[in-house]
Amino acid sequence: MIWNFIANILYCFGNIIPALPAECLKFVDMSGGLAFLDPEFGGHLFTKLLFLMVIQCGVAIVLSFQFRYLVICHSQWIKTVHPTWGYIYCIAVHLTFSVFQMCIFHVFEVSREDYPNPEEINGKERLSCYHPYGARKILCIVGLFGMFVVLTITCLVLIYLSFLHLKRNEKSLQTKTVNMQKKVLSNLVKLAVVPVLMGALPILIGSYAVFYPHSNGSNEIFCVCMLVMLNHGAVYGIVTFCVFPEYKEVVKRFLIQLLSKICYCVVNGTPTTVYVIMVK
Predict the structure, then answer these.
(1) Does 232 fall in a domain?
(2) Count of domains forming the chain
(3) Does 249 fall in a domain?
(4) 99-123, pLDDT tens digit by residue?
(5) Domain containing 192 — which CATH number?
(6) What are the residue ranges of helices labelled H in the chain?
């Protein structure tokens, strides 16, 4: 998924470390390529972009189930719709959630100079801070939580309606068609479990640590949630190979061909490249 790939690219350039109980995050420039950015601005920007990618993953999953629902339940109608409208609709949904997420995070931000509890951040550097209490904090956390609730409920409703339609039309549709649609839908459900458990759930748990920064283990909870999110891509790839054996076979053939064409061996102590042509 493109959004997960972009998030992984972001992590190559930087990372955020919680500084709880202060409502702040320490921005770490992993590559040194972001030295031109002010740490406070860079931290705020990195956090917004990171959560933006997570939200986009959720929106993409819901849209995939929505179009699968349309194919199953309204196959004749969807044939009459020009594909351009589908692209416009997807872009509009992504933009709506993006603008809302960026706005609530912008409202949540506060400059280091205006942070109401300066004793919590004295001596700490490279911090990007947020309002530790008040309506702005509640708006951001409730808004973030609300987006995931809306996406989750929408996804569950679409899955239920799709399976219900297939169940009701088992007799009127060909068995092969029904089984194929069920298999595709089941595979989508399996793939959706990974982002939910390793993306949405850590954010919701991490929100608790942010909402109650003075609770015991809040820093550790936040760090574990970030660690789980960091490994989302690898697990998602493994699950994809398990769910779609065809992908695994393609990668396997690619690696075999690559290794068969370029083999490194040592001849008289000198590394030599040996090219082997595969005969089909």
Answers:
(1) yes
(2) 1
(3) yes
(4) 999 999 999 999 888 888 888 888 7
(5) 1.20.1070.10
(6) 2-13, 39-73, 75-79, 83-108, 135-168, 175-195, 201-211, 218-230, 232-243, 245-261
